[in-house]
Amino acid sequence: MIEWFSTLAAGSELPIDAASELQERGFVVLPGPVPPDRMERLVNAYTTVMASVTGDDIRIGSTSTKVSDLVNRDAEFDGLYVFPPLLEACCRVIGQPFKLSSLLARTLRPRSPAQELHVDVRRDSADWPLLGFILMVDEFRPDNGATRFVPGSHRGSGTPADTISDLRAEYDGQVLACGKAGSLIVFNGSTWHGHTANPSSGPRRSLQGAFIPRTGHAGTDFAARMQPETRVRLGPLARYVLAL
Questions:
Q1: Cα separation, 100 vs 102, whole angstroms
Q2: Are residues 109 and 198 in contact, defined by beta-carbon separation less than 8 angstroms?
Q3: Residues 209/213/217/222 CA torsion (nearest 10 deg)
């Protein structure tokens, strides 16, 4: 476990300027792990998952529909949670052995309002520090609900709810994380963020998840849910990341 962390921390896949941006601003947009010629396959896998999952693994919220545990859904999603720049970012933000806490598909529905500004985990939680990521299945634009961040907010100890009366309103200094399909947002979970309104007539789709300290409580118990066919295809790095 310690050996894997040391190896990943010593990597050089995360560009220096991206590491600096993550440290200073609390988020960065990177080229993702899916080559352009494989995006269609990823989109097809996403569409199949969203159409086929039932029961507790699908949640329909006020603005979006989510499907959990993509680790067991399709091999097309395997490369995301072992993407070297993402794992190096985990080493920098979490600073200790870590594990994947969640991996889900999320469709922001058309004509949805903005999400409240929030942090993903409080500092007094066993799951802090948290490193979040969002893969853009569709292009993220100002008019379809791109995620907004408040740069540098991860450096403070408070949360948006501590100081803001209207958490859905635009916040002075907020920045939209826009990018083409296949781009990857990597962010410190203490950075204030939330999706903006999607006034468009189309959905805005993404894959998202989070890493937490090895000792934290994962949102998904991957060991308990692991399917035999999934376990067969996992390499040593994936097994480390999933805490198997």
A1: 6
A2: yes
A3: 60
Record the pTM: 0.97
- Measured CA to CA in angstroms, residue 62 lies from 34, 40, 106 at distances of 30, 28, 12
Structure tokens at 200: 């468009």
Q: Are 135 and 209 in contact (CB under 8 A)?
A: no
- 169's tokens: 């309103």
Collapse the DSSP code of 117 into the 3-class scheme (helix H, G, I; strand E, B; otherwise coil) and give the result: coil
Beta strands in the chain (DSSP E): 27-31, 58-60, 64-67, 98-108, 131-136, 147-149, 175-177, 183-188, 193-195, 204-213
Cα(150)–Cα(160) distance, rounded to whole angstroms? 10
Q: What is the pLDDT along the chain (244 residues), one digit of tens a residue?
A: 668 999 999 999 999 999 999 999 999 999 999 999 999 999 999 999 999 999 999 999 999 999 999 999 999 999 999 999 999 999 999 999 999 999 999 999 999 999 999 999 999 999 999 999 999 999 999 999 999 999 999 999 999 999 999 999 999 999 999 999 999 999 999 999 999 999 999 999 999 999 999 999 999 999 999 999 999 999 999 999 999 9
Q: Which residues contact 81 (CB under 8 A, 6 or more apart)?
A: 71, 100, 103, 209, 238, 241, 242
Bond preceding residue 160 cis, omega within 30 of 0: no
Half-sphere exposure of 181 (CA within 13 A, CB side): 13
